[in-house]
Design brief:
Helices cover 11% and strands 44% of the residues. It has a single domain, classed as Porin, CATH 2.40.160.200. By secondary structure, it is mainly beta. It comes from Streptomyces olivochromogenes.
Length: 175
């Protein structure tokens, strides 16, 4: 199961700047109380899109990069040098954006909704794990990641949200 990563705080709602994958840029993701929780460390001068999600002490929690030699656009998420997940668009999804997150342990997460509008959900076997939305925020250029399950890993779910947004924007030609 997707266990919560230790040391991420008690808050389960996070505010993410909309242009998170401005590679080379560094900035903070905050919880719903305005506390800095994760640092996004964009890696400039790389051949592929890549960044690290760090905790407040500078420890790398998640590595995200674009797979170079995949047939379809694919993002990979890793932790401690090990592969954690691979994200790609589902082939047949005409009405809504659907992405499949294949975790290293063989389980899969489903991401669906209006990705470019920042209104979508992350589910595991039809059970809601996180809701990504702009609706309840008044801060421009920001969206929220509301982690529903207490045993979920917020860093992983934030990374999943960022990856599907990046893939959807790339497919549309925005990146």
């Amino acid at each position: 199961m997707i266990l919560r990563f230790p040391g991420t705080g008690d808050g389960m709602r996070f505010l993410v700047r909309d242009r998170l994958l401005g590679f080379g840029d560094d900035y903070w993701i905050e919880d719903d109380h305005g506390n800095k929780v994760f640092l996004v460390d964009g890696k400039a001068m790389r051949l592929r899109d890549t960044f690290e999600l760090k905790d407040t002490r500078g420890r790398v929690l998640i590595d995200i990069h674009q797979k170079m030699f995949a047939l379809r656009d694919t993002m990979a998420i890793g932790r401690d040098g090990e592969s954690l997940a691979t994200i790609r668009r589902k082939r047949l999804s005409l009405l809504r954006n659907h992405y499949r997150v294949s975790l290293a342990d063989g389980t899969e997460l489903d991401v669906s909704g209006k990705i470019l509008d920042r209104e979508f959900a992350v589910e595991y076997e039809s059970e809601l794990l996180a809701v990504i939305s702009r609706r309840w925020l008044h801060v421009r250029e920001t969206y929220g990641v509301d982690v529903v399950r207490e045993d979920a890993d917020p860093a992983l779910l934030i990374a999943v949200a960022v990856c599907v947004i990046h893939l959807a924007e790339k497919e549309r030609g925005e990146d």
